[in-house]
Amino acid sequence: MIDFYYWTTPNGHKVTLFLEEAGLPYRIVPVNIGKGEQFAPEFLRISPNNRIPAIVDHAPSDGGGALPVFESGAILLYLADKTKRFIPQDLRGRKVVLQWLFWQMGGLGPMAGQNHHFCQYAPEQIPYAIDRYVKETSRLYAVLNKQLADGRDFIAGEYSIADMACYPWIVPHQRQRQQLADFEHLSRWFDRVRQRPATESAYARAATINTAPVVDDAAKRVLFGQDAATVARGNLQTGR
């Protein structure tokens, strides 16, 4: 059994996609990040960066005790290695998947995340910041579109953790001020992943976890008001 500490963000969805695809038994432990639940001491022992997702594997392959893993990319890689699924077992195929996994972790996710912040959540509209991140998101979409332009079904050929990492960050494309119609090959890939039964199951589960996905002013103070002092305290007093 895997305990899955989760909230309905793109990074959270990545892990649900894997768990649903692999059919691994898991238990969702909701962590409402808008209410500051990511600062609970018991969660920080699992995820010291106070971010979801995180897992605790109660049956690790080494036969040892329960094993916690935090960071979405690390979790995907851990689960792929555990099950020997959704990552090639040969050197060259594995290299391709890892390249695109790290591309998402270092590029698509952070840049789209800043896009979300300045377009949706910032207290004032800053044209330079919006233009900067909307353009960079567009560039990254074009990079992925080019990778898919040779007719391949998925990013690394076969469906893999690279696809699971990228897909949830493309789902909110309209909020990122992107039009999928501008990216023919990416759009084709997006529809293919969206129609997978495991993808449908993952997002159906999300709808039962977070039934009011609104970031209000109190949640913004929690999500966007953190600094070094937050880490030093080890918790967060909401609204302070």
Automatic annotation (TrEMBL):
Q: Which UniProt keywords apply?
A: Transferase
Q: Which residues form the GST N-terminal domain?
A: 1-87
Q: Which InterPro entries match?
A: Glutathione-S-Trfase_C-like, Glutathione-S-Trfase_C_sf, Glutathione_S-Trfase, Glutathione_S-Trfase_N, GST_C, Thioredoxin-like_sf
**GO terms assigned for molecular function:** transferase activity
The organism's taxonomy opens as: Bacteria, Pseudomonadati, Pseudomonadota, Betaproteobacteria, Rhodocyclales
Q: Which family does it belong to?
A: Belongs to the GST superfamily.
Q: What is this protein called?
A: Putative S-transferase
Write down the superkingdom of origin. Bacteria
Q: Where is the GST C-terminal domain?
A: 90-213
Q: Return the Pfam families for the record.
A: GST_C, GST_N
